[in-house]
Design goal:
Elements (H helix, E strand, L loop, with lengths): L2 H15 L9 E3 L2 E3 L9 H7 L6 E3 L4 H7 L10 H9 L3 E3 L31 H10 L15 H5 L13 E5 L1 H8 L9 E9 L2 E9 L5 E3 L11 E6 L1 H4 L7 E4 L2 E3 L8 E8 L10 E5 L12 E5 L4 E5 L5 E8 L4 E8 L4 E7 L4 E4 L1
Parallel strand pairs: 3-4
Antiparallel strand pairs: 1-2, 5-6, 6-7, 7-12, 8-11, 9-10, 9-12, 13-16, 14-15, 15-18, 16-17, 18-19
Length: 360
Amino acid sequence: MSTRAFHTQLLQYCYYQCLDARTCPSRAQKGSNTVARQLPMASPHACLIGCLCPPGCIPHPQDYATGVKTTDPFNANLYVGTSSMLAAALRLAPSKDVFWSSSSEHYPLAASGGSPPRYPLAREHFPVLQTVVAALTAGPVAPGDKIGMANASLLGATCRPDGLLLKPGYPATPAEIILEKRAQGDWTPGHGEVNVAYSNLSGSVYAALVAMDTSAAVTLTPVDLGFANDASLVVWNSPINSGSGGTAQATVVKQIEVPSCGKADFQLMYITAVATSTAVPRDAVVLLGEETKIVPHSPIRFKSEDRQNGRFVVQGAQGEHITVALLDVADKRVVSVHCVFTSPTQTIQYDVGTKQATCK
């Protein structure tokens, strides 16, 4: 690399360090939530420079335009989990390239001397998956739609109404079992991606799992997901990838079964360990979170939780309305509560006796 190119990237880094915090989501690891900044088009040496002034964030270098112009079915721009490992290990927030949030978007430039589009087949066939992958990087969410073409409701699933991104505490990287299979030669790029992002709320760990292009079903034990071997897991599917909407249906299991899937039917599910009736103290209530968001349990939204006493502190913008789902562990009943923010924080209180929740 030339000295000029090196200095250019360094100047870009310094410039983005001065940007508003909303440019890049925060990173939370082991319970800490810190604001990150963007380092664009980073190479490995630039990543290391970013470590001198952490926190920062780096993007995956795969060019989105290349895939969308050529209608590349592989679309490697979505395969950012492995590259995110470097950034996460350096305590930096990764990200992915720009994307279209609407399938009706098209490439506007015409061929030289003609009126037809230069790339008439250019379309984004999986805008929901693009948005999910971007949100789970814990880095910038960068829609590149033409003015008036963006899918506002889909992009709204990544943030609060005021634009503050609701991201996980730790970026999505491959599940441990996938790394083991790769090392043994049992998992090639053609087998797809199974990535997991984590958030820590008052010591409780929440996982957001996204799977795509898997040629076979994948079984994940609690250990594979970073939980204790004997943990009981609460798992619930996101209504975002199914388009079904409505209230989440949560189950308590001993292992996770991720079905084989492609990009159109990708899997987005959430997992947390729970202290059952045989444990002391017992978890009375588990947070399922804000169901309309890709990261329903973001530490940006939830300040703290007390599962034993059914108390959850939420954060929001003045006048914001949200609906939060809770799971009564004893009877597996899902309860929804509506919050209106008249102050920066509100407290959700669940009464195990009456099976009712309030937010005030």
